[in-house]
Specification:
With 152 residues, the protein is of the alpha/beta class. It has one domain: P-loop containing nucleotide triphosphate hydrolases (Rossmann fold, 3-Layer(aba) Sandwich). Helix content is 29%, strand content 19%. It contains 5 helices and 6 strands, in the order βαββααββαβα. A hairpin with a 3-residue loop joins β2 and β3. The protein starts with a strand and ends with a helix. 34% of the residues are buried. The model has no long low-confidence stretch (mean pLDDT 94). Magnesium ion binds next to α1.
Length: 152
């Protein structure tokens, strides 16, 4: 069986590749991600897949290669991009990540509300990779989740 990975989805520029690099212990340059990138532990999904509802089927298909999905919301920019209940269409666990938590703290309640409407259950992880916030908590949660799924 193909190795399962952590799939990362989210709106344009929300910090997917930054988070993916951290989950792969990789420090490299960033540029807009146009294609789906399979990393050591991760699948970095282009934002176009969630910005266009007709592309949702690609996310559902890619999720077959994932043991969990990190669904990102950008705390610095709260335009709604996911459709209502979207997370419920994904069969592996969906973990809510509020990225850029170092910016616009006043937007946190909006992000929490959006997570609920997308169908993501708590806990939500507030993360800022550049500021080193929340990443250790997220990693240890994922490790436990993986163990619980009998994957480790
Ligand atoms: N302040 C702040 N900036 C961040 C954070 N995470 C990422 N960034 C910055 O946001 C910009 C976009 O980050 P990326 O990781 O390329 O975002 P992405 O979601 O992969 O972008 P696309 O592939 O274009 O959709 C970069 O300039 C990052 O340095 C964060 O937590 N806080
Ligand atoms: Mg990217």
């Amino acid at each position: 069986m193909r190795k399962k990975r952590i799939m990362v989805i989210g709106p344009r520029g929300c910090g997917k590749t930054t988070l993916v690099n951290s989950l792969n212990d990789y420090a490299g340059p960033l540029s807009k991600t146009q294609d789906t990138i399979y990393g050591k532990n991760t699948i970095d999904v282009p934002s176009a897949y969630i910005e266009n509802e007709w592309m949702y089927k690609h996310i559902i298909a890619l999720a077959q290669d994932a043991w969990c999905v990190l669904l990102l919301l950008d705390q610095s920019r709260t335009t709604e991009v996911y459709s209502h209940g979207f997370a419920k269409a994904i069969r592996c666990p969906v973990v809510g990540v509020i990225s850029k938590c170092d910016l616009k703290e006043e937007n946190r309640p909006i992000c929490v509300r959006q997570m609920g409407s997308i169908g993501v259950d708590e806990p939500y992880f507030d993360v800022s990779v550049p500021e080193g916030i929340g990443i250790d908590e997220l990693k240890s949660y994922l490790l436990k989740l993986k163990e619980r799924k009998g994957l480790k």
